[in-house]
Each structure stands twice: as structure tokens, then as C-alpha cells.
């Protein structure tokens, strides 16, 4: 009798634990708000991102005569932004209709380009920060490193690194058909738990380390060292007309955009991966992570609109080129008038000397 009671108690406990586990695994998803949020934000980003980046392309290719290593990094950043911006109308259509009619290939390419833009932007922004650090802290010793050829090599390495991680991840995703909604195909949100455990968890560790933590540390360290250099009195005499206020403004804008756009998403991505791999369990945790994820994703996508601000504040060459174009005509007129005055003065002096010689020659002959 005692034995039977113990067995029944064990069965009851196991049943309760099983029910609790089942409830934990079947938490109610509270992220339905993401569809109108995504469609609205992505539409805005598409319009502003397309306009601002096309203007940047025009400046880089048509207006900018002098190009250096900084503009090389910026042109690659523009290319990364535009590749992603061109896929946004497809995402907007999907999040409005909750249906993907464009085929599996475009779904996979869109996912790949999102990660390409995200981590490509972080790495190219880091290249700009490191380049500014070398130019200000080590202006003479870095001359051999800061060349357009080396900048192109670095950009090529960034593209290879980013694409080698984003393309395999994007092509893991397979569009799936809904059982509840007839003829509806899902995209962007149907990585299975098995894929998260076998592949995506490793990808998250790699991209968080190489694509986020290292660039973040480099941006912060380079900015601190630049600020320390600007505090030294000899920096002004060494750099000529070095505008400390302007450089400080560049650094603040650069760090703000980097931190604002990328920290929320990448921090939440770690917790999202832990939830999807069942490392973190509990409906409350899953609800919080799933609620934050769409908001952080929208903030990350907005970097396509903010990057052109960095182009303006960072590239002194661009600003000087624009100013040079507006001043070239007036400068030419001033130089021409000065040359004309000089030539007229010299001709007048020559005529006076000839006249004087003739007068003196006439006086001597009389």
C-alpha cells in the first residue's frame, strides 16, 4: 500500500512537471505588433535612406575631385547601405500582407543583405575611426599606411569577411507555408530551433565577437586616444589650423550613431539566441526578448539614414571640396585682377623708364 502511494505521488509530480514544461515551451507570443511597426519604419528608412545615399553617391562620383582613403571607406559604406535599401520594398510588402510571393531565392538574399549591411556598416565605420586615429595621433608615421591602395585592400577584406558569414546564414532560411492561412508563405522569421542550436548559435558568437565587440572597442579606444591627443598643446602647432571643436563634434556624432544603432540590437540578439536555443527558459523572459527584438531591429535598420550624417561631419575633404567649388570663381577673379594690375604696373614702369631715358638723352645732346 505504501509502495502504491509513492508511485502515484511520483506519477503526479512527473505529470505536473510535464505540464509546466509544456506550458513553458508553448508560451504565448506577444510580438504581433512587429508587422505594422516594420512596415512603417522600413518605408521611412527606404525613402530617406535612398535619397541621402544617392546624394552621397553623386557627391563622391561627380562633385568630389580629390579622393583619399577616408572617402574610399565611405563609398563602400554607401554601397552596403544601398544594397540593403533596395530590398526594403519587398520587406514592406511582406509585413503588410504577411505573405512572401517572391520566391525562396529573394527571401534568402534579403536576409543575407540585412546582415551584410549591419556588420559591414559597423566594420566600415570602424575603418573610418581607425583612419582618423592614425591621421591625428600618428600623422607622420602613418603616411605609408594611409593610402588609397591599402584602403581598397581593407575594404575588400571587410566584404569577404561579411559575405562569408551572411550568405550561408541567409541561405539557411527556407520560406514556409502557413497551415492557418491559405496560400501564405512566411519569410524572415522561421529559423527552426534545430537550426538555432546547430548553426545559428555559432554564427551569433562569431558575429557578436568579430562584427560587434571588436569594432565597438576599436571605436571607443580610438576616440579616447584622439581626444587625449587633442588636449596636448603641441597638437595645434603640429597640425596647423586644426579645429579641435570640429573633430570633437565628428567623434561625438560617430560614436552616437554607432552606439545608438547597433548596441540595442546586438545585446538583445544574444538573449534572443539564448531563448531560441532553450538555454534561457521562461515565458516572461521570452516575452521580454521578443518584444525588444523588433524595436531594436528597427533602430539598427535606421543606420542607413544616419550614415550620410557621418559623411558630412567626418569627411573634411568633402566639405573643403564644396567650399572650394563655391570659391573657385571669386578666387580666379581676384588672382586675375592681381595679375592684370601687376602687368599694368610693370608696363607703366617700363614706359616711364623709356621716357626718362629719352629725356635724359635729349638733355645730354643739347
3D architecture notes:
With 366 residues, the protein is mainly α. The protein has one domain: Rhopdopsin 7-helix transmembrane proteins, CATH 1.20.1070. Helices cover 81% and strands 1% of the residues. It is built from twelve helices and two strands; from the N terminus they run H-H-H-H-H-H-E-E-H-H-H-H-H-H. Strands 1-2 form a two-stranded antiparallel sheet. A hairpin with a 7-residue loop joins strand 1 and strand 2. Helix 2 packs antiparallel against helix 3. The radius of gyration is 32 Å and the shape is globular.
What is this structure, in a nutshell?
It contains twelve helices and two strands; from the N terminus they run H-H-H-H-H-H-E-E-H-H-H-H-H-H. It has helices at 2-25, 34-63, 69-85, 88-97, 104-137, 148-170, 193-230, 234-239, 244-276, 283-301, 303-314, 316-365; strands at residues 176-177, 185-186. With 366 residues, it is mainly alpha-helical.
Looking at this protein, list some descriptive labels.
single chain; 366 residues; mainly alpha; Rhopdopsin 7-helix transmembrane proteins; two-stranded antiparallel ribbon; 12 helices; globular; disordered C terminus; transmembrane helix
> Roughly how many Å apart are the termini?
159 Å
SS-derived structural category? mainly alpha
What's the number of helices?
12
Strand order of the largest sheet: 1-2
Specify the CATH architecture.
Up-down Bundle
Q: Give me the CATH superfamily.
A: Rhodopsin 7-helix transmembrane proteins
Describe the sheet with the most strands. 2 strands, antiparallel
How many strands appear in the DSSP assignment? 2
Contiguous runs where pLDDT drops below 50 for at least 5 residues: 1-24, 328-341, 358-366
Task: List the helices and strands in order.
Answer: HHHHHHEEHHHHHH
Oligomer designation: single chain
Percent range for helical residues?
over 70%
